[in-house]
Design a protein that fits this description.
Layout: H1 2-25, E1 33-39, E2 42-55, E3 62-64, E4 71-75, E5 78-84, E6 89-94, E7 97-101, E8 106-111, E9 114-116, H2 122-138, H3 142-162
Parallel strand pairs: 1-8
Antiparallel strand pairs: 1-2, 2-3, 2-5, 4-7, 5-6, 6-9, 7-8
Helix pairs in contact: 2-3
Length: about 160
């Protein structure tokens, strides 16, 4: 009997703290999130409210919704999809970068390169892939091989984004 009362007390204490933590972080009531998406030469979104973002990451592609758990991730070459509040969708090819998701439902996407997918040229992407594979075949140093492998990874993702 005494043990049961102790268990109930512990549960009440824990559930009160959990509820308080959720209220402080605002998980249940975050209706939107603010996106800042930039590359060195351009700002694609500057603190704009959006519904969802899908990003390619080395830990696996994932979607970001309002009130997402705070996260820091590295972007891999691939397509970032932004679902805007008006229902439209915009896709961008990124070569690499970082994504930061903050407690206040703000998201910062910083890309080394970001290009709208609808402006990509599949024949140019395939040519770049062939050049990268040729560079790997003729690479004479470990540094040259590593650079060629990175170029192949980006080129393969670029071709996939075009298809």
């Amino acid at each position: 009997m005494e043990r049961m009362a102790l268990t109930r007390s512990a549960l009440r204490l824990f559930s009160g703290r959990f509820t308080q933590a959720c209220q402080v972080r605002g998980y249940a009531d975050a209706p939107s999130m603010s996106l800042t998406f930039a590359a060195p030469s351009q700002v694609l979104y500057n603190n704009i409210s959006v519904k969802q973002i899908d990003v390619p990451s080395f830990s696996g592609s994932f979607g970001i919704l309002p009130a997402h758990v705070p996260t820091l991730a590295v972007l891999k070459p691939g397509v970032v999809t932004v679902f805007e509040n008006d229902g439209s969708t915009k896709k961008f090819f990124v070569s690499s970068g970082t994504v930061t998701i903050n407690e206040d439902s703000t998201v910062q996407l910083l890309a080394e390169e970001a290009v709208p997918v609808d402006t990509l040229d599949i024949s140019a992407a395939k040519e770049l892939l062939a050049q990268s594979q040729s560079q790997l075949a003729s690479a004479s140093s470990e540094v040259a091989k590593a650079e060629a492998e990175i170029s192949i990874e980006v080129s393969e993702a670029l071709v996939k984004a075009c298809e």
